Every structure is written in structure tokens, then in C-alpha cells.
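Chapter summary example: a protein plus 6-phosphogluconic acid.
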Amino acid sequence: MTGTAQIGVTGLAVMGRNLARNFARNGFTVAVHNRTTARTDELVKEFGDEGAFVPARTPEEFVAALERPRRLVVMVKAGDPTDAVIKEFAPLLDEGDVVIDGGNAHFEDTRRRERELRERGIHFVGAGISGGEEGALNGPSIMPGGSTESCATLGPMLEKIAARAEDGTPCTTHIGPDGAGHFVKMVHNGIEYADMQLIAEAYDLLRAVAGYSSAQIAEVFRTWNTGRLDSYLIEITADVLAHTDEATGRPFVDIVQDRAEQKGTGRWTVQIALDLGVPVSGIAEAVFARSLSGHADLREAARGLTGPTAVPLSGPEAAAFADRVEQALYASKIVSYTQGFHQIRAGSEAYGWGIGLGAVAAVWRAGCIIRAAFLDRIRSAYDARPELLSLLSDEPFAQEIGAAQDDWRTVVAEAVRQGVPTPGFAAALSYYDGLRADRLPAALTQGQRDFFGAHTYRRTDREGSFHTLWGGDRSEVSTG
Ligand code: 6PG
């Protein structure tokens, strides 16, 4: 027996429900299922008139409602719940069916699940979906990874529900095999953390050094959003800063506890970057900054430590400083994306995914949390030169960051002088200086390693590796 639904969604919490509605609103017949049936009933009752839903009470009913080959989207919590759902549904599926995991899964889990299901002839697609609740309903950015065959059958459906870039292109593309989609989504989230941290630092500097009120800073962000920083995160930052707390009449941002939480995708990005040997220092600082903010006890214990108290500027000096912060923010943002794209390239090489970096930039242009006007320029850079090693080597970006650097340095120096923590700005600047340095102190590190551990070193003037007999006559021996 075969059903009529072209797609099914199981797991109807807000993301799953909105995704199901998005499919239905785009003309697809959608089978819907949830472990507790009340959610299924609620969806059909509240939104049944938006399109064709087929409510299913049991996994068997759900599977029977789907046309063949079946396509079912799993929208449950990443981790064990995903495995539990797969375990429950896999025995009910046939060869050629496609299971799509739309959660924030770890890409290694996705690789394992893909392999296990492939052995049973079932396709498993790990799809990164970005854009939050609103995106799921009105158009997310979708990053599917899996077999070419399954992604080809899914492609047209995903294109219908995805966000569209300004040029009309849907923000979804087959990223690569098995875990490639979830890997790219993970790095997206790492960049999201870095972007948010940089914006937070800019806010802090505008507050403490420029002496602006939250309302004034909201205006600054609004202005920035009309320029090269034009992005979703800058836009919502202005809204958050302009919001007044109803209960106290104070700026909303002042009544929120200053402890940032995290669910783990930023941390994964850094963990994997360490394994791949990719310096994602900006992303790492963002994760650590959240972690530092959360250590209330440590912070309390350190409250008495001495340091400068920022003295706010005023008038034209404050305005000039705000302009400098824009430069620092933009330059640091270029560095975050440079690091993120480096990580995607490294992951793609390590796992043999063949990910097109231009295509990734293209699907991030709309729908996702890090959508930003400048992603179109990143897309052009990689489309023009797919072999481009680093975004910083792209001439237009190199020029912009070069032009921003005086202000960038002034801002970091001023932050250090006034005691305002800017780990994101500073790490980005150090990355830039590290990459462009003629000579790094790594040479000394190598000397030390050779001294205490006979780890050997390479010379600048000859091939091969060498060791100095530090404990003996300090002559040099060739080691290979
Ligand atoms: C998105 C978001 C989302 C993500 C959180 C990160 O792309 O829609 O990246 O998927 O889970 O924004 O959450 P935490 O800040 O809690 O880690």
C-alpha cells in the first residue's frame, strides 16, 4: 500500500511544526507525526487550512501515509532522541526510502547513521537547517548532505521551501556526502557565535568608551546595517538594544543577566578545528567568552581585582570612535569568515566531501542566522577562484581589511588601555598579523622543543631535519 504524502515530518515541536507548515504552504501533501499525538492534533486544528496535512497517530500510520520512495524528515532533539526515532522507523522502511535529519546533529553521528542505514538500502540525509522558528516557516537556509541520488530527489522540494537570495536563487544545495551538510551547519554556528561576540564587543565599546546609551547604540547599529555590515544579526541587535523592559522602564539589555548560554555547536566547531589543525581563534574566543561569562562564582571572586575604569569620550570624539569600531567590527568579521571557510575546506579535504566553498557562501546569503550582504562577495570570490586558500588573499577583501587596520588597531589598543575585554577583536587582529608576518616566533618554539625533547627542527638554509646536542658540545646532527 502506498500513501499520498510527498513528505512526512516527525517531531512537531516548533521547528518541526513550522517546517511541516512550510511544506504544506508550498503545495506538498505532508504527513505529520509526533510521539504525543496531542501535538499532531493541535497542528492540524490550528493550521489545517494552510495546506494538505495527513495526521498520523503511530509510526506505522505515518509510514503508510507516505508515497514511495518515502521521504521523512526527523525533527527531534539531536543525539539519543534521533537514534531512538531511527531505530523505531527503520524496520518500517523499504529500500530507496529517504530519512532526513533536520536537527543540529554532530556530523560524526550523521556519518555513522548514514553508514548504518545505507547497509539496509535506506538513504540518510543530514540536513543543516538554519533560520530559527521564523526561517523554518518562511524560508530557511538548508544544507543537505547525503547520497547524490537522495539529494537529487529532495532538491526540488527543498528549493521550494528554502529562502531565496536577492537574485532569486534558493538557499539550498547538495553540500556533499554523508556528514558534509551537518559539518557545514556546525561551522555556520561557529561563525554565528563569532559574529555575535564581535557585535557584543562593539556594543560594549560604544557603551563604555564612546559613552553611548542603549538607545543611541541601537541607532548606530541601524546605521551600520545600511552599509557593508548589512546583516540579520546587526539588524536584530538594533531591535534588542532599542527594546525597553516593561516592568522597570529600563533598557531591556540592562535587566538581562550577563551570562551567555550555549547548546554546543560552537564548542563542536572549535573541538573539530583543533582536530583538523585549523586556527579558528575568533570562534574559539567567542565560545570561551560565553564560558567566562557563565562562571558567576569566578567573576564574583575576581571583582576586587584592580584595573582601569573606562572614561567615556564625548561629542565628536565619541562619534569618531564609533566609526573606528565599525572598521574593527568589519575587519574582525572578515577574519571570522576566513577562519570558518578554512575549516570547511579542511573538513572537506579530510573527509573527501568535495564541498564547493562558493556554493556554501551562496546558501548562506538568505534564510540563515548569519545571512549578510557581504556573503555574496564571498560567493563571488570563491566562484572566481575555487582554489583560493584564504579569503584574506582575495584582493578586494585584502584591500578592505588593509584599509581598516589603523582603526582596528586603535580600537583594540584603546580597549586594552581602558580595560574593556575584546577577545574577539584582539584574536582576529592577531590572526591577521600572524598570517602576514615575515617571521614568527615559532622558530624559538622549535628550538625549545629540540632542547628539552630532541624533537628536531628544520633549517631555513638546508633541507632535512636536525638536532642540536644541547646537553653535550652543542654541535648539530642531521636526523633525516
Ligand atoms: C540556526 C541556529 C540554531 C542554533 C542556535 C545556537 O542556524 O538557526 O544556529 O540552529 O541552534 O542559534 O544555539 P546556542 O546559542 O544555544 O548554542
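Key point: The pocket of 6-phosphogluconic acid is lined by residues 104, 130-132, 189, 192, 261-263, 265-266, 368-369 (CB under 6 Å).
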